[in-house]
Amino acid sequence: MRVTIFGTGYVGLVTGTCLAEVGHDVVCVDIDAAKVDGLNNGVIPIYEPGLEPMVKANHAAGRLHFTTDAATAIQHGNTIFIAVGTPPDEDGSADLKYVLAVARTIGQNLSRPAVIVDKSTVPVGTADKVRAVIAEELAARGVQIEFDVASNPEFLKEGDAVKDCMRPDRIVIGASSPASIEQLKRLYAPFNRNHERIVAMDVRSAELTKYAANAMLATKISFMNEMANIAERVGADIEHVRHGIGSDPRIGYSFIYPGAGYGGSCFPKDVQALERTAKQYGYAAEILGAVEAVNARQKHRLFELLDAHYGGKLAGKTIAVWGLAFKPNTDDMREASSRTLLARLWDAGARVRAYDPEASHEAQRIFGERDDLLLCESARQALEGADALVVVTEWKQFRSPDFGRLEATLADKVIFDGRNLYEPREVEQAGLAYYGIGRGRSV
Ligand code: NAD
């Protein structure tokens, strides 16, 4: 089938590549000429396991094209995805300017029937807005072309995006017309062979499903961080509590890890946007407000532990930081808790030696050159001349360090474990002080 995808970010590029991988003929269009140029020359703009060889193979096979030419791209597809960004507006609601700009371009160039599919995460009612903009442009051109607007929210996880896209848990399709649902079912048939993954529904329910999923996951994280903060005060270890509750199948083990707060391009903005939508409809979404407030506070937790350990005297200290990305297996630092930590450390007069396996170039772009930041080539290099170590992102390679070496290297012999990767006793036996999240030490 012929597919056009607007936006070659995490979602657009991965979706386009996976659709090409199963044999569809895909044109990806982006307004970022440098990105498109790079992609046409084999330069993949993001780090995502397994993506690069797949992009190159499908590009070489002629099933995956990249262009800035929206008009030609629109001629190509009878399914046209919108997968552009929906960043938060000033008041926290989703900013639809990119989505609606694409809708306008589609209306200005559509020449034959097509199903337009919102894949971006967009508030309930957006499909109606997209439909209105396209209809307005068609009317201005004085043409009548049949089109439908469907919703197909994306559930891929950064770091596992290719796997999630090739083997999705579910494919949510929201459309009012049975023909549109059929068209999307045919498009996704190669991903739906083992068992039924397609969940078809009306457009508004599909739009809300995406927000509900992210809000639920963010709630689990904030809930566990709240429990961790209580555990710390009452002298309990949240890791025992986690095992104790996860074993209940009604609760389950996934997504109940306490830590330094959630980040990334989705949870923070989606929880905010859903709260905003509820407010617009006259409903105060109190759980969502609490989820955000707990998370905002949690992002300062690591700094508070450091500050308390050093009695407020962090000026002149050199802190090694392992992990900058908002989670492992990505180079994405949007809303990452590392950013809060680094800002607070710099305010307190400390220097940072940071290492992340993939996010160094992103950190360089965000922070630029500064005297109080050294971006290191390895975890070990970050430790050289450091007084303390803070682990912010749970990359696998940080899971079992040589504590003896850490004891010999870190001047102040202390580890702050923002993801509870280590056993406190093992660290302490090596002669290091240990701080985790919610591990029975009230500070
Ligand atoms: P991104 O910022 O990585 O990419 C967006 C791309 O759209 C950019 O390359 C940008 O240049 C391009 N773009 C903007 N305007 C355009 C236009 N008029 N025409 C063509 N291209 C245009 O964004 P992303 O992370 O891929 O997210 C896209 C959407 O998917 C968002 O709504 C997001 O909430 C949602 N989503 C993201 C994830 C994720 O893990 N990143 C997961 C599920 C859903």
From TrEMBL:
InterPro entries (UniProt xref): 6-PGluconate_DH-like_C_sf (IPR008927), NAD(P)-bd_dom_sf (IPR036291), UDP-Glc/GDP-Man (IPR017476), UDP-Glc/GDP-Man_DH_C (IPR014027), UDP-Glc/GDP-Man_DH_C_sf (IPR036220), UDP-Glc/GDP-Man_DH_dimer (IPR014026), UDP-Glc/GDP-Man_DH_N (IPR001732), UDPglc_DH_bac (IPR028357)
Known EC number: 1.1.1.22
GO MF annotation list: NAD binding; UDP-glucose 6-dehydrogenase activity
Keywords: NAD, Oxidoreductase
Residues of the active site: C266
GO biological process: polysaccharide biosynthetic process; UDP-glucuronate biosynthetic process
Superkingdom of origin: Bacteria
Domain UDP-glucose/GDP-mannose dehydrogenase C-terminal: 320-424
Catalyzed reaction equations: UDP-alpha-D-glucose + 2 NAD(+) + H2O = UDP-alpha-D-glucuronate + 2 NADH + 3 H(+)
Top EC class for this record: oxidoreductase
Binding residue positions for NAD(+): D30, K35, T86, T121, E158, K269, R334
Pathway the protein takes part in: Nucleotide-sugar biosynthesis; UDP-alpha-D-glucuronate biosynthesis; UDP-alpha-D-glucuronate from UDP-alpha-D-glucose: step 1/1
Residues where substrate binds: F155, L156, K157, E158, K210, F255, I256, Y257, P258, G259, G263, K327
Keyword NAD: yes
Function: Catalyzes the conversion of UDP-glucose into UDP-glucuronate, one of the precursors of teichuronic acid.
Family: Belongs to the UDP-glucose/GDP-mannose dehydrogenase family.
Protein's recorded name: UDP-glucose 6-dehydrogenase
Organism name: Agrilutibacter terrestris
